[in-house]
Amino acid sequence: MDDVDRVNITDPEQIKSLINNIGNFVFGVFIALSVFFLLWAAFSYLTAAGSADKLKSAKDKLIYAAIGIALAIVSKSLPILISNFIGSNV
After folding, report:
1. Which is deepest, 34, 43, 59, 74, by most CB within 10 Å?
2. Would you say residue 5 has pLDDT above 70?
3. Which residues contact 23 (CB under 8 A, 6 or more apart)?
4. SS3 for 6-42, per residue?
5. Distance between CA atoms of 82 and 46, rounded to whole angstroms?
6. Is the per-residue pLDDT at 79 higher than 80?
7. What confidence score (pLDDT) does residue 75 get?
């Protein structure tokens, strides 16, 4: 364990920076997954050929993509809310 670098957070600016970095990472992951689900839903919808089960599956994927986009927006706004809570600006 001696080789592991420890993060010493001693300043509110460092907390803001860490939360911002985590928020940016989560934003990127959720946007990438949302785009994947949107494309998959579009492909599923186009290849459903009128099958009710396949259409329902495509709708579900579209809902998952919308949820992913909503979570991405929350991950971008969360650092702002937290920094306002601790009393500093982003």
Report:
1. 34
2. no
3. 75, 76, 78, 79
4. CCCCCCHHHHHHHHHHHHHHHHHHHHHHHHHHHHHHH
5. 42
6. no
7. 81
Amino acid found at 71? L
- Average confidence (pLDDT) over 45-65: 91
Overall domain count for the chain: 1
pTM above 0.85, yes or no: no
Which residue bears the tokens 């959720």?
30
The domain containing residue 20 runs over which residues? Answer: 15-86
User: Could you give the CA distance from residue 11 to residue 31 in angstroms, rounded to a whole number?
Assistant: 31
What is the dihedral sign for C-alpha 34, 35, 40, 42? positive
List the structure tokens of 83.
């920094």
- Summarised one tens digit per residue, pLDDT across range 7-53 is 677 777 777 788 788 888 888 998 998 999 899 999 999 998 889 99
Q: Which two tokens stand for residue 42?
A: 């579009």
